[in-house]
Amino acid sequence: MNDFLCDQPILIRFYPTATYECSYLPGRDARSLVASPAEIIDGHAYGQLIQHGFRRSGLYVYRPACHPCHECVPVRLDVQQFQPHRNQRRAVKRHANLTSHLQGLEFVDEHFELYRRYQAARHAGGGMDQDDREQYENFILCSNVTSFLVEFREDGKLRMVSLIDQIEDGLSSVYTFFDPDVPAASYGVYNVIWQAGLARQLGLPWLYLGYWIRNSRKMAYKTTYQPLQAWREDNWHPLTPDN
User: Fold this and answer.
1) Pairwise CA distance, residues 225 & 84, whole Å
2) Mean pLDDT for back-to-back runs of 10 residues, the chain (243 residues)
3) Taking the C-alpha atoms of 26, 237, 50 and 174 in order, what is their torsion angle to the nearest 10 degrees?
4) What are all long-range contacts of 10-16, with beta carbons under 8 Å and residues at least 24 apart?
5) Rounded Cα–Cα distance for residues 82 and 224 (Å)
């Protein structure tokens, strides 16, 4: 994929990065295909790119291009047909006291402090646990598309923050961080179900969940949300826990 002409008159080009250490599969090198120039990729253009397996990290729009590895598979959830299974319903019930509040992409000290605690507990040594304010803002608060934050509180205490993009055919779950010190919490499960519900309320068909990686403990869970589709061979196909 070298060029991409949107149905609006802008031309996007794609460039492979140098190889870097894979964050999900130990001992493997990774490479991304980056869409450029970033500043012209608005919500409409990004809406078309995400339908072809791309994702956003700050202003950086990319898709894995790790030949011969093809473990990173873009997935999206059919929110109109989604019905939580028993364990997922338990997570919703467990966190029934959470309240949600939507807000713009503004820096909040409390959010940043939670982000730092989450990275230190869940991703120690991964690099992001050393993020300073500027790196946090570039990752979480920089966007050329329609984006918003959702904070979740329990009895006034901040428990979780989600960054979500709204595109033409759905919502895209960009990043979520939560309180790592609450025992037996299921914030991640609750969050996916909450976002699916929001997409359904907005009349949008899809919740884009990023990449499913079968052999990564951190990323394999996504097939527990059904019906799921995967971007493979230049089209979307059903993806079940068995395939």
Assistant:
1) 7
2) 54 94 91 94 94 96 93 97 97 97 98 96 76 95 97 98 97 97 95 98 98 92 97 94 78
3) -50
4) 10/40, 10/45, 12/36, 12/37, 12/40, 12/41, 12/45, 12/49, 13/37, 16/65
5) 11
As a residue count, the chain comes to 243
Q: Give backbone dihedrals phi and psi of 69, rounded to 5 degrees, phi first.
A: -75, 135
For 161-172, the pLDDT digits (tens) are: 999 999 999 999
Residue 222 phi, psi dihedral angles, 5° rounding: -65, -25
CB-hemisphere CA count at 13 Å for 137? 7
Domain locations in the chain as residue ranges = 3-70
Residue 140 near residue 175 (C-beta atoms within 8 A): yes
Nearest C-alpha neighbor of 163 from the set 133, 186, 179, 143: 143
